[in-house]
Amino acid sequence: MSKPYDRAYFDKWYRSQRHRVGSRAQLARKAALAVHLAEYYLARPIRNVLDVGCGEAPWRAALKRLRPDIEYQGLDSSEYAVRRYGRTRNIGLATFGQLGELRFDTRFDLIVCSDMLHYVPAPEVRRGLAGFADLLEGVAFIEVFTSRDRVDGDTHGYIARSPAWYRAAFVEAGLLPCGSHAYLAPRLMRSVAALESL
């Protein structure tokens, strides 16, 4: 049985004082890290972001505080989130695996995929990552936890893959790790010094 990403799910894991794991301040720091890394490597302000598995789009507000004019596109498989916030927060209905085929009018300066990939089956992860080379102009912030990490929060459906599994999948997709959950687009690799990558 698939896990429902309905209002009750988001109420519990994002709003409940008892169950919520992250804070607004923590999200603001992650957003600032992702934006500044992307701008450092692109050598210009970022213009757009694709937020994959965005849920109710909490990243949108954090990113808009940093860059008010940024173009935000969210994607999520939750029919509830898209029905409730799709129009006002620009969230489209899509699974991670569909990134292998989905294309937009432009590449994205920043792709965010925060705290969701460890719930996605391996074939779908690989299928979705295959699209990153075409979708990504700058930096992908892929926050994912592994079998070596202590996990707080929602463990229902959590898939504890090894760090080596993810590293191999990201390399296969053409992504270059540069630390702190950040990965560079293939087109940026020529301008990266040897010690900037892991």
UniProtKB/TrEMBL annotation:
Keywords: Methyltransferase, Transferase. GO terms for molecular function: methyltransferase activity. It comes from the Bacteria. InterPro entries: SAM-dependent_MTases_sf. The keyword Disulfide bond does not apply. It holds the Pfam family Methyltransf_23. GO terms for biological process: methylation. This is Class I SAM-dependent DNA methyltransferase.
